[in-house]
Design a protein that fits this description.
By secondary structure, the chain is mainly α. The chain contains 4 helices and 2 strands; from the N terminus they run αβαβαα. It has a domain of 65 residues. A two-stranded parallel sheet has the order 1-2. β1, α2 and β2 form a beta-alpha-beta unit.
Length: 94
């Protein structure tokens, strides 16, 4: 497979697995966006913009982290996810 064919394959695969941005406002469940401040794959301004479309979404921009926040800043990532899940479960239990 050539690089061009691979890129086309990858683009089609992502399109098939991705919820269109226009449908994000329909989400009814708690949503957490986490991005690294230095992410060059999905830049923080894009993640920030997406987070404003989802009703009630939480956004965490982790300093000194790139695309692999969960690996680069694992302790911070885990703390943020744990807090989000705890808060979401508490709200859901009401």
């Amino acid at each position: 497979m050539t690089a061009w064919e691979w890129n086309e394959h990858d683009r089609k695969l992502m399109a098939a697995r991705t919820l269109p941005a226009s449908r994000l406002r329909e989400l009814k469940m708690p949503v957490l966006f986490i991005t690294g401040a230095e992410d060059i794959v999905i830049p923080p301004p894009l993640v920030e913009a997406l987070s404003t479309v989802v009703p009630g979404a939480k956004l965490e921009i982790v300093p000194e982290a790139g695309h692999s926040v969960y690996f680069e800043r694992a302790e911070r990532f885990n703390r943020v996810v744990d807090q989000f899940l705890t808060e979401s479960l508490a709200v859901g239990a009401r």
